[in-house]
Design a protein that fits this description.
The structure is a homodimer. The first copy, chain A, is an alpha/beta fold and about 325 residues long. Helices cover about 35% and strands about 20% of the residues of chain A. The first copy, chain A, has nine helices and twelve strands. A five-stranded mixed β-sheet of chain A has the order 3-2-1-4-7. Chain A has a five-stranded mixed β-sheet with strand order 10-9-8-11-12, with helices on both faces. In chain A, strands 5-6 form a two-stranded antiparallel sheet. In chain A, helix 8 links the parallel strand 11 and strand 12. In chain A, helix 5 packs across helix 7 and helix 6 packs across helix 7. The first copy, chain A, is globular. At the A-B interface, helix 7 of A face helix 7 of B.
Chain lengths: ~325, ~325
């Protein structure tokens, strides 16, 4: 590791709405960071222009010109092997295209090497290095954000699979018949129920289907944050929405456990902040659906890292290996 | 590897009904083999007495007295880390007990070292070494026998997970609501629909539910082999049973692909002989449920190894590492 001349790396976390980036040193300190919109442009080239402009700014702020070793990027549908982003339906400039993201970003940053992985894989690396999964060799990271992502760690290594795209657990089937239509084109995907947008969708559906009183009825547009705030105020419908969300997560988690027998499932992302409403329903339904040998043995852990830090740190960890 | 003094290993494959065992040399030749019933005794000690008697016989036949390096065992619910068989509900001497199988077998065989793994993991190793998965680093082995087992290979290594029990895909949920009751105590498990017993169960249910004519109606007891034979004669109900079975397998396989992005799913076991009736429904429903990035890219491969050989060879491969 050339840490004398080039002691810093860049970590970039690309979400459907925002892109977080930071300059990180060898001890995992974030020296400078910033956030830009991901969804300002349909054209990825214009987006990358904004990324490189924002990077220049924080590089200058942290006086790290010429000291950057490389860039690690966590992004939905990113391929670790090829450096491409493929079919990223939750990103406005993604769609059904194959975008040579690593190549484009290297060109815009005067030749800095770029490593790319799934945003959830990056978060898993961050969690394993600095967070709740420290010391764990086998765990599954589930990110509950705009979509539902996953990073699977087996024997201390992130699973990339044959083609580099392993770990799309948000698109496993949670509801087999008459399931909700997903952005990916399938129906019943886990993320249509248990992402932040899924929770908001449940709220809208349930408000329409029933006339149960709820403070959510007064809102024109409902976000998962609104449902969380209502739950905190004791709104019964909001509480039931989290119970339903937790139950679906737990059912799916039981199947994930049957696959890789992890020590824990680590939850991360905006919706994971609703820990007090999600934990018990997840535990109950997961244990009800686990084989006897796993009942009450699998931990559900909520990330304690600051969301922005974990994603940036995880992405940046990739860059040290460049 | 001490192959001069001890040039042979023993491979034992334990199924719900039969136990196959063989003496294997360094080139993977099965020098002698035999089969005994697994289900003659409720007491594992009596069963192990029969195993060791049968072993003595084939050791003597192959003139390999004193030349056996160790024993590799493939068994349901076997723990690679501990050498125990735990909660093996499909085995009469299994049940909800923890059986220190490796220890018991070592004691009965004058101290021969014993390594144990899931029967499906053993089959996966056999398939990777000698069969359809040669050269593959990422694949999922699915065994369609009395139950449904699985062996998951990632980066060329069998996945054991945190506790040694990874790869119980037969007990992932195929039918979420009103699913069939499984031996494991859960409902809707994949193996209740797609094992040999699951296929027979479908036949019995469908014959009762409808009055559709079928040659199967003349039978008192229906096995999956009967359904297969009827399908070969063009029996429409039997053909529909395989279509249904293949569809459920394909739906589940799509979720497995989202986990580890394998190059192929390899099918093995008695029911996999019905390749001509299962292949197309599996492919159709798997592709209908895959993310766009995987559509038409994942291979479904049927094992070409003789079933007894693959299991014995796979189990025996473990013993070389002892």
């Amino acid at each position: 590791m050339n840490t004398v001349d080039k002691p810093y790396v860049v970590g970039i976390d690309i979400g459907g709405q925002t892109t977080k980036m930071g300059i990180v040193d060898t001890r995992g300190q974030v020296l400078a960071q910033t956030v830009i919109r991901t969804d300002n442009h349909d054209d990825v080239n214009l987006y990358i222009d904004e990324v490189s402009a924002a990077l220049e700014k924080i590089i200058s702020e942290s006086e790290s010109e010429g000291k950057i070793r490389g860039i690690g990027v966590g992004a939905p549908n990113a391929n670790y092997y090829t450096g491409n982003i493929e079919c990223a339906v939750n990103i406005v400039w993604g769609g059904n295209k194959t975008i040579p993201f690593a190549k484009l970003l290297t060109e815009k940053t005067n030749g800095l090497p770029v490593a790319l992985t799934n945003d959830a894989n990056a978060a898993a690396v961050g969690e394993m290095t600095y967070g709740a999964a420290r010391g764990m060799k086998n765990f599954i990271m589930i990110t509950l954000g705009t979509g539902v992502g996953s990073g699977i760690v087996i024997n201390g290594e992130v699973v990339y699979g044959h083609d580099g795209f392993a770990g799309e657990l948000g698109h496993t089937c949670a509801v087999r018949h008459n399931g909700r239509l997903c952005n990916c084109g399938k129906t019943g995907c886990l993320e249509t129920y248990t992402s932040a947008t899924g929770v908001a969708r449940t709220a809208r559906e349930w408000l329409e289907m029933s006339d149960e009183p709820s403070s959510l009825r007064s809102l024109d547009v409902i976000s998962s944050k609104d449902v969380y705030d209502a739950a905190k105020e004791g709104d019964r419908l909001a509480l039931k929405i989290f119970e339903f969300t937790g139950r679906i997560l737990g059912e799916s988690f039981a199947d994930f456990v049957a696959f890789s027998a992890p020590e824990a499932i680590v939850l991360f992302g905006g919706l994971a902040r609703a820990k007090e409403y999600l934990y018990q329903p997840i535990m109950d339904s997961m244990n009800a659906n686990l084989l006897p040998l796993w009942k009450n043995k699998i931990k559900i852990v909520f990330s304690q890292l600051k969301e922005s830090d974990a994603a940036i740190l995880g992405a940046s960890a990739l860059a040290w290996e460049l």
